[in-house]
Amino acid sequence: MKESRQQMIVKLIQEQNIETQEELARVLRENGFRVTQATVSRDIKEMRLIKALTPEGSYRYATVENAENDVQDRLIQMFSRCVTSVSSAGNLIVIKTISGSASVAAETVDSLKWQEIAGCIAGDNTIFLAVHDADAVPELIRKFQSMMQ
């Protein structure tokens, strides 16, 4: 019973913007589960659900994995809006951004966790990426340019 209820919780929070435990309990009851708010509270803790910000500015329950994907999608959107150019110098990639946006673009790069990148340093409008192997630079530049579109 618990396993099927928790599977239903995942399905419901993926399909609907559920903001409160009470709302989740109500929707579960509508789907044939006999639950109390305390049961739902225990499930939320056990499943490690979090409240994630929606594009509309409200909060909803989400799995950590889905919330991380949403954050990464938003970072990539910001990256595409603020990066003006990507070039290279040896095993370094130089990313130019509009003024004051390098830190957001660098956060995006860090969130990608690409193994080829040793690290990055952001200034106001420039990011330097150190790449482990210079042979990987052209492919990384191609990936960054595709993110800019």
Question: Which descriptors would you attach to this protein?
Answer:
Gyrase A, domain 2; Arc Repressor Mutant, subunit A; four-stranded antiparallel beta sheet; 149 residues; alpha+beta
Q: Can you describe this structure?
A:
The chain has 149 residues and is an alpha+beta fold. It has helices at 2-15, 21-30, 37-47, 64-82, 102-112, 137-147, and strands at 50-53, 59-62, 83-89, 92-97, 117-122, 126-131. It has 6 helices and 6 strands; from the N terminus they run αααββαββαββα. Helix 2 (21-30) crosses helix 3 and helix 4 crosses helix 5 (102-112).
Number of domains: 2
Taking the alpha carbons of the first and last residues, their distance comes to 47 Å
Query: Sheet with the most strands?
Result: 4 strands, antiparallel
CATH topology of the largest domain: Gyrase A, domain 2
Residue stretches low in confidence (pLDDT < 50, at least 5 long) are: none
Order of helices and strands: HHHEEHEEHEEH
Shape: elongated
Number of strands: 6
Structure classification: alpha+beta
- How are the strands of the largest sheet arranged? 3-4-6-5
Radius of gyration: 21 Å
Helix content: 40-55%
> Overall pLDDT, averaged?
90
CATH architecture of the largest domain: 2-Layer Sandwich
Q: What percent strand?
A: 15-25%
CATH class of the largest domain: Alpha Beta
